[in-house]
């Protein structure tokens, strides 16, 4: 974003809420002509494998039972989404497999009842691996819409290129067929825009080679440790907007995997930049993604952090600072899903 639009943003877009004064996030233009807000609240509760250490003993009984996944509480996500909308978020990222679409829907519908227009909100959800056959896509989206209590989502993503049956074995369904189902969902008006998540360049190219509609969005992991410059350049060239998940990477000591590369939250270079702009280190991490042209998806269930994470549109990082932060890129992936390494559609490097 250039200086001019920041100043413009500062002038005309102050959002006044009870206690905070933050600059409203801008939007980006999608290749289908629609607009997408430049930051989204994440709603995946995460993974507590290391804390609970049950991964090796836990028997998988359904596709939901990811190793040590955090089980959703009754209404914690509902609160988070409510706080987020109050703080100015207009984009919520969720997924069928997170099992909290109902909570997202309750919060969103309450805010709509209070006067926020449906058209002002941008709701993203994702198709799980067990509904990749073409004819199962629309019914899966209808299930998500029923949980969300909505008539349509703004963006529907294929969560992974990997296809599985609900018992976990691989389905032979080709993601080209899945994408045809997505196109059908869009034609029916159930999803206003469609895109993919965790696809690599070749997999996107294959959609295009088959003369299918171009995805509006690619959602992938992007953070200091995994900046993906060539994938970002590819998406820019194809006019595909990138949403960056796990935006904090290994920033927090308690979340960082053993052996994961720096930076951590007390990194001197980050602390210095944060002090200069009177921001926090997590805010610098998110702003850096904005400078890369990426839509960050920070997840938090904590009101103060939800408010902090959206307060990143009143400053920008100098080129010199951006170049310094580029050095943290170690091509280190946090979410590898190595359990799917033997799928023909596994999207990441296999080493
Ligand atoms: N497409 C995909 O396959 C995929 C994969 C992974 C994630 N995602 C999406 O991306 C979202 C974000 O990724 P993620 O959940 O893996 O990780 P993340 O957003 O990078 O990190 C979440 C963690 O950071 C903490 N946190 C957030 N803001 C903070 C702040 N300002 N200061 C200190 N700590 C802070 C949160 O704590 P508290 O909650 O306790 O505040 C939580 O522990 C997900 O929720 C999901 O929507 C998509
Ligand atoms: C998990 O528990 C097993 C046995 O109880 C132990 O050998 C292993 O080191 C633990 N792993 C972690 C990551 O704590
Ligand atoms: C898993 O489900 C599929 C589809 O229903 C079925 O064909 C396959 O035999 C099942 N595999 C196992 C190991 O249960
Ligand atoms: C959950 O965390 C464990 C340990 O850090 C990791 O091995 C596993 O891949 C993670 N699962 C997901 C889905 O990220």
Report on the structure:
The protein is 35% helix and 14% strand. With 351 residues, the chain is an alpha/beta fold. It has one domain: TIM Barrel. The strands form three sheets. An eight-stranded parallel sheet has the order 5-6-7-8-9-10-11-12. A hairpin with a 4-residue loop joins strand 1 (14-16) and strand 2 (21-23). Helix 3 (76-87) packs across helix 4, helix 3 packs parallel to helix 11 (303-310) and helix 4 crosses helix 5. The longest helix has 15 residues, at 134-148. The chain starts with a helix and ends in a 25-residue tail after the last helix. Residues 12-19 and 49-67 have low confidence and may be disordered. Bound molecules: NADP nicotinamide-adenine-dinucleotide phosphate and 2-acetamido-2-deoxy-beta-D-glucopyranose (3 copies). The active site is at 98 (proton donor). Residues 1-19 form the signal peptide. The record marks 126 as: Lowers pKa of active site Tyr. Pfam families: Aldo_ket_red.
Short description, anyone?
The chain is an alpha/beta fold and 351 residues long. The chain has 12 helices and 12 strands. It is 35% helix and 14% strand.
């Amino acid at each position: 974003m250039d200086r001019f639009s920041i100043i413009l943003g500062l002038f005309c877009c102050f959002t006044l809420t009870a206690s905070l004064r933050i600059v409203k996030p801008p939007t980006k233009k999608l290749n289908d002509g629609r607009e997408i807000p430049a930051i989204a609240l994440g709603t995946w509760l995460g993974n507590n494998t290391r804390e609970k250490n049950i991964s090796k003993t836990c028997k998988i009984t359904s596709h939901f039972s990811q190793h040590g996944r955090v089980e959703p509480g009754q209404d914690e996500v509902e609160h988070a989404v409510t706080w987020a909308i109050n703080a100015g978020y207009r984009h919520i990222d969720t997924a069928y497999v997170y099992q909290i679409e109902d909570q997202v829907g309750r919060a969103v519908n309450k805010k709509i009842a209070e006067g926020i227009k449906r058209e002002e909100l941008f709701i993203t959800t994702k198709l799980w691996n067990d509904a990749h056959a073409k004819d199962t896509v629309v019914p899966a989206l209808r299930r998500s819409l029923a949980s969300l209590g909505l008539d349509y989502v703004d963006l529907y993503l294929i969560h992974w290129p990997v296809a599985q049956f609900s018992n976990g074995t691989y389905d032979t369904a080709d993601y080209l067929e899945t994408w045809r189902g997505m196109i059908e969902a869009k034609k029916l008006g159930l999803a206003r825009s469609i895109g993919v998540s965790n696809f690599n360049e070749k997999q996107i190219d294959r959609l295009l080679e088959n003369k299918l509609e171009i995805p509006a969005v690619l959602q992938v992991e992007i953070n200091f440790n995994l900046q993906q410059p060539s994938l970002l350049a590819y998406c820019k060239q194809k006019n595909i907007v990138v949403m960056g998940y796990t935006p904090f990477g290994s920033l927090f000591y308690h979340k960082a995997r053993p052996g994961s590369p720096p930076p951590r939250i007390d990194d001197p270079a980050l602390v210095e930049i944060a002090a200069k702009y009177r921001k926090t280190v997590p805010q610098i991490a998110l702003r850096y993604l904005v400078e890369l042209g990426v839509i960050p998806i920070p997840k938090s269930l904590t009101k103060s952090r939800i408010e902090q994470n959206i307060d990143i549109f009143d400053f920008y990082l100098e080129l010199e600072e951006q170049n310094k932060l580029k050095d943290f890129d170690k091509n280190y992936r946090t979410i590898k899903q190595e359990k799917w390494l033997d799928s023909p559609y596994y999207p990441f490097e296999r080493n």
